[in-house]
Design brief:
The complex is a heterodimer of chains A (about 250) and B (about 650).
Chain A (H helix, E strand, L loop, with lengths): L3 E10 L2 E11 L4 E5 L6 H8 L7 E6 L2 E2 L5 H6 L2 E4 L11 H12 L14 H14 L14 H14 L4 E5 L7 H18 L2 E5 L3 H7 L2 E6 L2 E6 L1 H6 L1 H6 L8
Chain B lengths: L6 H32 L6 H18 L2 H26 L9 H23 L10 H4 L1 E4 L2 E4 H23 L1 H11 L1 H6 L4 H23 L9 H16 L4 H21 L4 H15 L36 H16 L2 H27 L6 H18 L4 H23 L4 H21 L1 H4 L13 E3 L3 E3 L4 H24 L1 H11 L1 H5 L5 H27 L9 H14 L6 H19 L3 H15 L3 H16 L2 H8 L5
Antiparallel strand pairs in B: 1-2, 3-4
Helix pairs in contact in B: 1-6, 1-7, 1-9, 1-10, 1-11, 2-3, 2-4, 2-9, 2-10, 3-9, 4-25, 6-7, 10-11, 10-12, 11-12, 12-17, 14-19, 14-22, 14-23, 14-24, 15-16, 15-17, 15-22, 16-17, 16-22, 19-20, 19-22, 20-22, 23-24, 23-26
Classes of the chains: A alpha/beta (about 250), B mainly alpha (about 650).
The complex binds adenosine-5'-triphosphate (ATP) and magnesium ion.
Chain lengths: ~250, ~650
């Protein structure tokens, strides 16, 4: 069985079928893009896969275990990290604290109530290392809420990486970034997932990025998978071309 | 119980239930409308009701006769609407971006101010409003005698409800209002003038409250503070029905009207507790009320993020212990210089400070506004009081048991409450608190009912092999409370600066993101609730020892407001803030009460100014400046690197 298995997921909101029999499987170490026009159901799929929503039917398995229908905090503990399309950080905490609290949780140290947080020196070092990785080391003492949008996105990636996930799920990691920032961020993600042998599942609207780094691509449209395969196959697929009519893929 | 089968008896009871429901609906429909659109739970709504009744009183005293009565009935809602508009445009409008707590507090400050102003203008006594002769009598209906006025009320209220329905569902403005209350962004996108709309809705809510007051005034009486009684009942109504939902308000009013009427007949002993019991039951089964929907979580972009620099974060804390030595030494030598009055005053402050600091572990650190902390204070105080008076338990074991009982109470209550957030959480804690208050107030056999417990013996404490410690005198009690409360505060300080504390803070900032770090958010919230409740109970235990007498008043919800006020005065996002707030509140209280009887007015003004001008509180302001300075001088940076293991 694949590392990540999504089987026949159905999810409706009232009358709207946001996901219809979505299935996909991702191998360990793979870099997988999930693309589709606005409202295709990408974020909804992420929400179902990480426990924020329960599917109406179908299941999600990660490393052999069923993870659909259990709350996010337990999904995360199985080794999944997720970032959000709309930046999701701890605004009135410093950059340092944002990552620190993630590490406390990862090391299960957030239960210790009688030792001062600052005395966890290994954690302090790890925080600075993670921040160095994403290029935020200089800004560690500023409040997360005053960072630029790009920096906030990077901070969210740092928070997600701090928990040392085996599967990294990023919902539009470059949304709102400048072209230059996007390239940098993507290069970084590619490097990290190679180095650490991470499996990376991400959504993205920039097709250059998608075709540049992904090993496999799943295309969603109106809640259905219309194509699934290697970048070259996807590029050649007539249905995908139709869905993206007029967009850059039709070059 | 044959009485129930009697039709005349039934008629009388049903009509009295309907009358009560009519009053409740008039007031709470305005409350729920304002909440739906403005997202503000308006504490001052009860005060607006009171103003309506006073308008009625004033106009009928100027113009007598039936003409005056109906003139007053028309003028009162308009007068109250005018006041409502002034309040909205002058005050509320400034704090829409702030967090809930500031809006609640501002309207609470208005209650204090309006109540005392009413006292100044109309006097403290109960006023009754004359009815015209033709409404004075009673009629006979199915053999039961029903006051004519009741019939009037029972007819008018549904008329108003129908009118309200027409306005909201059939007019353009009404449709806009409903659209706004279900989807603010949509309304924004439609280019609706939100400012004007908010004022309109607030004024309209005020009309309903004012009309409720005008109609209820002649049937009940009016006095300063009547609004506070009314508003809590209305909170129960709208929370049961579902906040922001008009039909919820209607059903809630009918339920409460019926329950109170039945309660008076069947459980006269526990009538007051019944409505809170109903509220707890409804919220446990349906957390958002019968017709309510979960509130949308505010997006980060909608939040006010301006306080980030007030909390000098745990990693930034100075590790210079001598800074703490100074106040500790001062407190230790204080009794050498000050008389018993001041020693007693400070002892009171220690107890209040402990309660406030414990409370702020919930509000400031975890982001949960509990409005029922007095319950745990009461549980602790009654544990000590009962054990010492009724059994031979020693002082220390009794105090220890107060920790235990309040921890148990907090675990049970917390289990239900942490499933809710925001205003709903506050209201459920309030309901539980009032339930415990009702029990203490009525259970004469056990708690002494409204007499409380007097003459609590404070036994000497055996010190292993070192003789007995007598804490009977003011001075020794001062030291005893200082040590116990001081240790408890030091413990809470450590908890807050620990990884556990950092986790709570992350939950406050963004619960969803916290759960995506693998944190079981509700478990942590529950744990924080239990810790806060336990230490509040300890404060209660100390209070019982210090005062040697307790009464159910200490459990009343107004007592739960104390730690909230202290925290806001001192600084919500700081650790010592609540303690400083305790000093300010208690010192102000003991001096101002001696100087004027209008203590509430002064307090209300202080709160108002604070919310508007210094929302981070006194210590928040100081911290902000300190952190700016430390950041600019690069001290924080150097200090943090010096803490790293590799450097
Ligand atoms: N909580 C919800 N309630 C109701 N409808 C929803 C909810 N979440 C998503 N939807 C709807 O489901 C559909 C899929 O939305 P989703 O956010 O998954 O799309 P997406 O592919 O992520 O789009 P985008 O590229 O814009 O991020 C949309 O029509 C959206 O309006
Ligand atoms: Mg999306």
């Amino acid at each position: 069985m694949a590392f990540l298995e999504v089987r026949d997921i159905v999810k409706s909101f009232g009358g709207l079928r946001a996901l219809q029999d979505v299935s996909l499987s991702v191998e360990k170490g793979e870099i997988r893009a999930i693309i589709g026009p606005n409202g295709a159901g990408k974020s909804t799929l992420f929400n179902v896969m990480t426990g924020l929503l329960s599917p109406d039917s179908g299941e999600v398995r990660f490393d052999g275990e069923r993870i659909s229908g259990i709350p996010p905090y337990r999904v995360i503990r199985k080794g999944i990290g997720r970032s959000f399309q709309i930046t999701n950080i701890f605004p009135r905490m410093s950059v340092f604290e944002n990552v620190q609290v993630a590490l406390f949780s990862h090391h299960r140290e957030n239960r210790s109530a009688l030792t001062l947080a600052r005395n966890f020196r290994e954690v302090t070092d790890e925080v600075l290392a993670v921040l160095g990785l994403v290029g935020l080391a200089d800004k560690f003492d500023s409040s997360a809420s005053v960072l630029s949008h790009g920096d906030q996105k990077r901070l969210e990636i740092a928070i997600t990486l701090a928990c040392r996930p085996r599967l990294l799920m990023l919902d539009e990691p470059t949304a709102g970034m400048s072209r230059f920032e996007s390239r940098e961020t993507i290069a970084l993600l590619q490097k990290i997932s190679r180095e650490q042998g991470l499996t990376l599942v991400f959504t993205e609207h920039d097709m250059d990025i998608v075709f540049g780094i992904s090993e496999k691509i799943t295309v969603l449209q109106q809640g259905m998978v219309i194509a699934d395969g290697e970048p070259a196959e996807i590029k050649a697929n007539p249905e995908v071309r139709k869905a993206y009519l007029g967009e850059e893929i039709a070059e | 119980m044959t009485g129930f089968l009697d039709i005349s008896f039934l008629t009388v009871q049903v009509l009295s239930a309907l009358r009560l429901a009519a009053f409740l609906f008039l007031i709470s429909s305005g409350l729920t409308l304002i909440f739906g659109v403005l997202n503000i739970l308006n504490f001052a709504h009860g005060a607006l009701y009171m103003l309506g009744a006073y308008f009625m009183f004033w106009v009928t005293s100027q113009v007598t006769g039936p003409g005056g009565f109906f003139l007053a009935m028309a003028m009162a809602p308009l007068g109250v609407a005018l006041i409502g508009m002034i309040l909205e445009m002058g005050l509320l409008r400034r704090i829409y971006i702030q967090e809930e707590i500031y809006q609640l507090l501002l309207t609470y400050a208005l209650v204090l101010i309006i109540d005392d102003l009413a006292k100044i203008v109309f006097g403290a006594e109960y006023k009754s409003i004359p009815k015209p002769a033709f409404l004075e009598g009673a009629i006979t209906l199915f053999g039961g005698t029903v006051p004519t006025y009741t019939i009037l009320v029972v007819v008018i209220a549904p008329t108003v409800a129908a009118l309200l329905w027409y306005l909201l569902y059939r007019t353009k403005t009404g449709k806009v209002i409903r659209a706004t209350s279900s989807d603010r962004e949509m309304a924004d996108a439609l280019g609706i003038n939100m400012k004007a709309l908010f004022t309109l809705v607030f004024a309209f809510g005020a009309v309903l409250a004012g009309f409720g007051g005008a109609l209820a005034g002649p049937a009940r009486t009016v006095f300063p503070g009547v609004g506070t009684e009314v508003i809590i009942e209305c909170f129960v109504v709208v929370v049961i029905g579902g906040l922001g939902n008009l039909w919820g308000a209607l059903v809630g009013s009918l339920l409460i009207g019926a329950l109170e009427t039945v309660g008076i007949i069947v459980f006269p002993e526990f009538e007051m507790g019944l409505i809170y019991l109903l509220m707890v039951a409804v919220l446990v089964v349906r957390p958002w009320g019968l017709f309510g929907k979960p509130l949308k979580i505010k997006a980060l972009s909608e939040k006010n993020l301006s306080f980030e620099s007030q909390e000098i974060s745990p990693v930034h804390f100075s590790s210079r212990p001598w800074l703490w030595v100074i106040p500790v030494v001062l407190l230790l030598i204080f009794p050498a210089f000050a008389g018993r009055f001041y020693q007693y005053l400070l002892t009171q402050i220690f107890v209040a400070a402990l309660m406030a600091v414990a409370f702020n572990l919930l509000l400031g650190t975890t982001g949960l506004l509990s409005f029922g902390q007095a319950a745990f204070f009461g549980v602790g105080a009654y544990t000590v009081g009962l054990l010492l008076t009724k059994t031979g338990t020693g002082t220390m074991p009794a105090l220890g048991l107060s920790l235990f009982t309040s921890a148990v109470a907090a675990s049970v209550i917390g289990f239900f409450c942490v499933r809710l957030t925001g205003v709903h959480f506050a209201m459920l804690t309030l309901a539980f608190g009032q339930l415990i208050f009702a029990i203490a107030f009525k259970w004469y056999g056990f708690t002494g009912g409204d007499n409380g417990i007097q003459g609590i013996p404070v036994r000497e404490i055996p010190l292993a092999g070192l003789g007995l410690l007598d804490i009977g005198s003011t001075k020794s009690m001062y030291y005893f409370v200082l040590v116990v409360a001081g240790l408890a505060v030091a413990f809470l300080r450590r908890v807050r600066s620990s990884p556990f504390g950092a986790t709570l803070k992350a939950i406050r900032e963004n619960g969803q993101r916290a759960s995506y770090l693998g944190i079981n958010v509700t478990l942590y919230q529950w744990t924080a609730f239990v810790i806060a409740g336990t230490f509040t109970g300890l404060a209660g235990g100390l209070f019982a020892l210090m005062e040697r007498s307790i009464s159910p008043e200490i459990i009343h919800w107004t007592k739960s407001a104390d730690p909230v006020l202290m925290t806001i005065i001192g600084g919500i996002y700081t650790f010592v803030g609540p303690a400083v707030g305790a000093v300010v509140l208690i010192v102000l209280n003991s001096y101002i009460v001696a100087w004027t009887e209008y203590w509430a007015l002064v307090l209300g003004m202080v709160l108002l100014l604070l919310v508007l001008l210094l929302p981070g509180g006194v210590i928040g302001f100081v911290n902000e400046k300190a952190r700016d300075y430390l950041t600019r001088s690069g001290w924080i940076r150097r200090w943090l690197f010096s803490k790293s293991a590799t450097s």
